[in-house]
């Protein structure tokens, strides 16, 4: 079945749905609940099905948004959903800093040749092959653990030239970068995650009398955050090529790059355009490691310095100063101002696809919120309770919810205030509460990491130059096995010791 025929079927189904919805009134809020019942999950489910069925993310996202507009009766999806979603400060930060500054920085490196020069230098001294290159990727992902989106951009942009030189496929690299982002952030939480979660659960049960006690509980639950722990261990094992759970598309990607040196499969639609990959170094420009190291060290020092001094990562300032430092180095070494600006603009153009996908993903999240998608998933699954299975059930609910809405923090906001009182009512034992708390943490991280509409997933593909759906479909089996191990452990511990 051709892709065109698939889209024809999808378009026909949507057209029929529009006609039926416009002539009837059988979709409405469920009485007593803030959701549209089973219809609440249609936009997210439709998007995910089309993503995997057609491998085309942009159109799938748009149809999902359109379906949400039809279900809610808000047919003007631009004014009702798109503009409110992309008009927020958080999206502006992602667009201007993560996408444009990142793209501009990579574009500057195509003019200075700094990233490729650093890759060759690193390859000759530190990286001795594919395994050491992948281990270097894991290490940098661990260093940049302040948060999901920050980690993917910092680590991805740093290690990609090294791994490209070592012939690490983009499917492998995008998995490494994505799997050392949010999972690391919850295991080594030197970030705002504990404070955010504490604010959600404070006062919900006696254990969390205030935000301070809730934040302390977050740290106590780290050893029981089994998904995050397994995800990190699996990633390091993958880098060292001792992970026994590598099969299917990921295994074929490894075999392809070893046999042909091709970083992407034939016909892949990578998230990096030619503006981000083609070198255009002016004749006579003295390329050196300074072109790469000064911007990266500026980025790292400002980000980590702000965290240590002020308790937060000044990511806006870090990226802007990194770009300005790259421009300044190029100018001081003799590059013309016009060539510097041209390189920056080429890089910005190169991330246009990523910006479009991210805007649509954020809009779909707005749609899901309006329909009460997360509320419906929690409401319908919370009724199925077997006490010793509750931690695993909560983890599964969070996995599905975060996968559907593309956000771990959004899932936390909905699930934690419900899950903690529910767990307390079932069994107030401290260990049981810890298991349930950690299960919510890990389950949401899994869903966020694997969802094709998650910002960290999109930015991992962008930062590493991977085909987005290739990244999703190659990392999901490994991550799912790690999640399965976590659910089994929760069940065993709850059954035996609680």
Order of helices and strands: HHHHHHHHHHHHHHHHHHHHHHHH
Give the oligomer, counting copies of the same chain as homo and different chains as hetero: single chain
Number of discrete helical segments: 24
**Can you count the beta strands?**
0
| Overall form | globular
State the secondary-structure class. Answer: mainly alpha
Average pLDDT taken over every residue: 82
Largest sheet: none
Proportion in helices: over 70%
Catalogue the unreliable spans.
Answer: none
Radius of gyration: 23 Å
**Termini gap:** 52 Å
Strand content: under 5%
Structural write-up:
The protein has 498 residues and is mainly α. The protein has a domain at 89-188 and 230-352. Helices cover 74% and strands 0% of the residues. It is built from 24 helices and no strands. It has helices at residues 3-23, 42-54, 57-72, 77-86, 89-112, 114-125, 130-143, 148-165, 170-179, 182-187, 193-201, 211-220, 226-239, 248-260, 290-310, 315-332, 337-350, 352-371, 373-381, 390-405, 408-426, 430-450, 455-464, 468-497. α6 (114-125) crosses α15. The model has no long low-confidence stretch (mean pLDDT 82).
List the keywords.
498 residues, mainly alpha, 74% helix
């Amino acid at each position: 079945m051709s892709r065109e025929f698939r889209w024809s079927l999808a378009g026909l189904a949507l057209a029929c749905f529009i006609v039926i919805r416009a002539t009837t009134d059988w979709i409405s809020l469920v009485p007593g609940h803030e959701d549209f019942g089973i219809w609440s999950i249609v936009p997210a489910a439709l998007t995910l099905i089309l993503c995997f069925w057609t491998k085309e993310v942009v159109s799938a996202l748009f149809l999902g948004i359109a379906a949400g507009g039809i279900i809610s009766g808000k047919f003007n999806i631009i004014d009702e959903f798109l503009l409110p979603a992309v008009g927020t400060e958080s999206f502006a930060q992602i667009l201007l800093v993560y996408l444009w500054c990142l793209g501009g920085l990579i574009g500057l490196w195509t003019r200075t040749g700094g990233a490729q020069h650093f890759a060759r230098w690193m390859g000759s001294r530190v990286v001795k092959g594919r395994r050491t290159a992948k281990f270097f990727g894991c290490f940098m992902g661990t260093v940049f653990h302040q948060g999901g989106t920050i980690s993917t951009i910092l680590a991805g942009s740093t290690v990609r030239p090294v791994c490209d030189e070592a012939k690490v496929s983009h499917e492998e690299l995008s998995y490494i970068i994505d799997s050392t982002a949010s999972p690391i952030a919850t295991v080594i939480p030197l970030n705002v995650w504990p404070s955010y979660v504490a604010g959600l659960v404070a006062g919900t049960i006696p254990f969390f009398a205030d935000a301070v006690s809730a934040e302390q509980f977050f740290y106590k639950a780290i050893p029981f955050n089994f998904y995050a722990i397994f995800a990190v261990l699996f990633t390091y094992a993958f880098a060292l090529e001792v992970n026994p759970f590598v099969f299917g598309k990921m295994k074929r990607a490894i075999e392809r790059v070893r046999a042909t040196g091709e970083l992407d499969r034939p016909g892949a639609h990578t998230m990096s355009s030619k503006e981000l990959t083609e070198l255009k170094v002016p004749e006579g420009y003295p390329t050196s490691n300074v072109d790469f190291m000064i911007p990266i060290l500026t980025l790292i020092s400002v980000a980590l310095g702000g965290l240590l001094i002020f308790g937060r990562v000044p990511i806006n300032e870090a990226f802007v100063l990194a770009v300005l430092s790259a421009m300044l180095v190029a100018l001081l070494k003799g590059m013309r101002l016009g060539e510097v600006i041209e390189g920056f603009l080429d890089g910005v153009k190169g991330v246009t696809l990523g910006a479009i996908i991210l805007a649509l993903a954020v809009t779909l999240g707005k749609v899901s919120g309006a329909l009460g998608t997360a509320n419906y998933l929690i409401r319908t699954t919370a009724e199925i309770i077997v006490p010793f299975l509750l931690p695993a059930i909560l983890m599964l609910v969070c996995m599905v919810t975060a996968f559907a809405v593309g956000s771990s923090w959004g899932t936390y906001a909905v699930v934690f205030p419900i899950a903690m009182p529910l767990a307390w009512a079932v069994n107030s034992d401290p260990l049981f509460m810890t298991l349930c708390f950690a299960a919510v943490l890990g389950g949401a991280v899994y869903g966020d990491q694997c969802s094709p509409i998650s910002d960290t997933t999109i930015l991992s593909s962008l930062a590493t130059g991977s085909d987005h759906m290739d990244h999703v479909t190659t990392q999901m089996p490994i991550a799912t096995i790690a999640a399965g191990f976590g659910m089994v452990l929760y069940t065993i511990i709850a059954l035996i010791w609680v």
